[in-house]
Amino acid sequence: MTMKAACLYGKEDIRIIEVPVPEIGDNEVLLQVKSALVCGTDIRMYKNGYPGVSEASPLIPGHEMSGIVEKAGKEVRGYTEGMVVAVAPNMGCGSCNSCVGGNTQLCKVDFRAFGININGAFAEYVRIPGDAVRQGNMVELNTLSFGEAALAEPLSCVFNAFQRYDVQPGDIVLIIGAGPIGLMHGKLAAMAGASKVIVNDISRERLDLVKGVEPGFLTSEGDAIRSLVEELTGGEGVQVTVTACPSPEAQVLAMELAAMNGRVSFFGGLPRDRAKVPIDTNLIHYKQITVTGTTMQNLEQYRRCIRLMERGVIDVKPLITDTYSIEKVTDAYSKIIQGKGMKHSISW
């Protein structure tokens, strides 16, 4: 039995091919994928290539997923055929300090992730290894659509950062980067009681999309953000700034616009050749700025975000602006590279 899959063979080389449906062991699950969202990581792997991915060793990308349990191995407990689930992508060894502390995504011993170093969700079916089953990567769904459930992965990455920069009621929050990740940061800040959420970007088209989804957010294009922050805060700066973009300039700007006792989150990672950023550390010292960084999410954060969505506390459904069949995955990549739309879903 075969299935259609999008396979990455190297830099700018992704092909739709027929591959065998995965076989599962007694402690594994076969998931019928219903929604798989395209992430910025998928685009970077496509544009730059990825270690270990080659003509001889292709990889099926896709790590933001939801679907239906097609088969469950005879030793699997808690998951049954027909169950609707979302799947967190990261697995660890289970016994190192990070894993024992609940942060399997930080495992340095045996880290694996769907669509990164094992086959992912840009296929009709995906094998869920026994480690992921045991660790609780699969979460049963009650009310969410498949697309919303797939959004639990990026939302929980954002939630990880949100817990560290600690928005307080009345805070003014600045998000630099008007993509779907920036919008999620803004939505969580509003949920926490921010008095104003400002989204800054160099793209007017992106900012217009933000206003369409969250008309209550303030938007500012390019360097005009300096005068807007000056006006809104009387020159004091903002309490929280998040750099939701891969920009060294945004990181420098975030420090400059922070208020006394401000919190700055470097959420967007930087290209390796631009990762050393000349920051005035006196700003950190004299303004008592807290600077944080986060990566991925743990399973508790993933489950909490599903609960937030299911209970209607946060609505991310409007972020899915485009839907494609698996045959059109390159169209999704092309639109994302052009900065068109927000989240792009491969759906069945």
How would you describe the overall organization of this protein?
The protein is α/β, with parallel strands linked by helices and 348 residues long. It has 2 domains: 182 residues, Medium-chain alcohol dehydrogenases, catalytic domain (Quinone Oxidoreductase, Chain A, domain 1), CATH 3.90.180.10; 138 residues, NAD(P)-binding Rossmann-like Domain (Rossmann fold, 3-Layer(aba) Sandwich), CATH 3.40.50.720. Helices cover 30% and strands 27% of the residues. It contains 12 helices and 17 strands. Strands 3, 4, 5, 8, 9, 16 and 17 form a 7-stranded mixed beta sheet that branches. β1 and β2 form a beta hairpin. The two termini are 18 Å apart.
Task: Please sum up the structure shown.
With 348 residues, the chain is an alpha/beta fold. It contains 12 helices and 17 strands. 30% of the residues lie in helices and 27% in strands.
Radius of gyration: 20 Å
Proportion of strand residues: 25-35%
Helix content: 25-40%
Q: What is the count of β-strands? A: 17
Q: How many individual domains? A: 2
Unreliable stretches covering 5 or more consecutive residues: none
> What is the straight-line distance between the termini?
18 Å
Task: Report the CATH superfamily of the largest domain.
Answer: Medium-chain alcohol dehydrogenases, catalytic domain
Q: Which overall shape is indicated by the principal axes computed on the Cα atoms?
A: globular
Total of DSSP H or I helical runs spanning 4+ residues: 12
The secondary-structure element order is EEEHEEEHEEHEHHEHEHEHEHEHEHEHE
Q: What is the mean pLDDT? A: 96
